[in-house]
Design goal:
Blueprint: E1 3-14, E2 17-29, E3 34-38, H1 45-53, E4 60-65, E5 68-69, E6 77-81, H2 92-96, H3 98-102, H4 107-120, H5 136-149, E7 154-158, H6 166-183, E8 186-191, H7 194-200, E9 203-208, E10 213-219, H8 231-245
Parallel strand pairs: 3-8, 3-9, 6-7, 7-8
Antiparallel strand pairs: 1-2, 1-4, 4-5, 9-10
Helix pairs in contact: 4-5, 7-8
Length: 256
């Protein structure tokens, strides 16, 4: 397996009380998979993402990527947050070039990469605009283009579309699904939106809270073309809804 999580436990102390954000979580992810971590607030999905990305350390258990234990963030992986993280004094092009500058990529190659990813995220002609001149959806597109330009092995996404309106969110879901297929990147995507998870995922990791744990891992058998009104899509969505209404077993083997 490309990513291996084994018996991961993470505890926090809040208001003098200890709680388990992750409780013996185990998960294997193949290279090139699109995985959604789905669940309500407090179920540990962002904590799991942060341990995978190297931002947080476990109390016990292990996380390995390509056979190496994750101890800190890697320059080979990038994280895209709900907050776009663009530098306001740099225009679109300069924001996309940020990681390329750090790697001292030659100018000709920078130009080529910027052009490629501006086209991929639908922002051709916006190169000289500044973040304040862009909509929220456009700023998130710049953030995605900046991440892709760095050619990461893994892209971690922590509710990146959560602050956007419904129409913009749906369009970006279409874009990120297309990008994942074309770029063949491993993507780990945190969401609390069931339809979003079904639309994007190869597999959905359904999580529950108190303590944070995996309730089920659901394979999404819909292929690369997703239609939100299709009967198969609605069937998978409804089965995920059913999971959240079930009693809180430790783990459910669930095949659709």
């Amino acid at each position: 397996m490309y990513i291996e999580v084994k018996d991961a436990c993470k505890k926090y102390v809040q208001d003098g009380k200890e709680f388990n954000a992750l409780d013996n979580v185990s998960l294997d992810i193949d290279k090139g998979e699109f995985i959604c971590l789905l669940g309500p607030s407090g179920c540990g999905k962002s904590t799991l993402l942060n341990t995978l990305a190297g931002f947080e350390k476990l109390n016990s258990g292990s996380v390995k990527i390509d056979g190496k234990e994750v101890k800190e963030p890697s320059v080979r992986n990038i994280t895209i947050f709900q907050n776009y993280g663009l530098l306001p004094w740099r225009n679109v092009r300069k924001n996309i070039e940020l990681g390329l500058d750090a790697r001292k990529v030659p100018k000709a190659q920078r130009d080529e990469l910027c052009a490629k990813y501006l086209k991929l995220v639908g922002l051709e002609g916006y190169e000289k605009r500044y973040p304040r001149q862009l909509s929220g959806g456009q700023q998130q597109r710049v953030s995605i283009a900046r991440g892709l330009a760095a050619d990461p092995d893994i892209i971690f996404l922590d509710e990146p579309f959560g602050a956007l309106d419904a129409i913009t969110r749906m369009k970006l879901q279409e874009d990120i699904l297309k990008i994942s297929r074309e770029e063949k990147k491993t993507m780990i995507f945190v969401t609390h939106d069931i339809e979003e998870a079904v639309y994007l995922s190869d597999r959905i990791v359904v999580m529950m809270a108190d303590p944070g744990r995996i309730k089920s891992i659901v394979k999404v058998p819909l292929g690369s073309h997703r239609d939100r009104t299709n009967e198969d899509f609605l069937y998978v969505r409804d089965k995920i809804f059913e999971l959240f209404n079930m009693k809180a077993e430790d783990y459910i083997e669930y095949n659709i």
